[in-house]
Automatic annotation (TrEMBL):
The keyword Cell membrane does not apply. This is GFA family protein. Keywords: Metal-binding, Zinc. Residues 7-115 form the CENP-V/GFA domain. Pfam families: GFA (PF04828). Coiled coil: none annotated. Gene3D superfamilies: 2.170.150.70. InterPro entries: CENP-V-like, CENP-V/GFA, Mss4-like_sf. Belongs to the Gfa family. GO terms for molecular function: carbon-sulfur lyase activity; metal ion binding.
Length: 119
């Protein structure tokens, strides 16, 4: 079972930086139109385990479909490094784009396919 670790990450240009404490045991590969086009791989954690350390003013919000997830991307480079939403029980949650975490070997991760296209 993967261990919880604190990761640092951010966007391509470095304007947005964050830290998150999570385990990478579940990395979701969603096939909805948005995720597939952007190539994101998601890992979810409670918002209490996430800290935006730089770039609040560099973020642009994008919502689509049911408009319940705030997809946040850098105004400068366009990279979506994380999103904010709530779990069905109301818990505030952050989804980080695992591709934006520093030093991650993507080949070592097991991806969980999610059929977002059909929802």
């Amino acid at each position: 079972m993967p261990e919880e670790t604190t990761f640092k990450g951010g966007c391509h240009c470095g304007a947005v930086r964050f830290e998150i404490t999570t385990d990478l045991g579940t990395v979701m590969n969603c096939n909805c139109s948005h995720c597939a086009m952007r190539g994101v791989l998601w890992n979810f954690a409670p918002e209490t385990r996430f800290a935006l350390t730089q770039g609040e003013d560099a973020l642009q919000d994008y919502q689509f479909n049911k408009k319940v997830i705030h997809h946040l991307f850098c105004r400068t480079c366009g990279v979506e490094s994380f999103a904010r939403g709530t779990m069905p029980d109301g818990t505030p949650t952050v989804a980080v784009n695992v591709r934006c975490l520093d030093g991650i070997d993507l080949e070592s991760l097991t991806l969980t396919p999610i059929d977002g296209r059909s929802k």
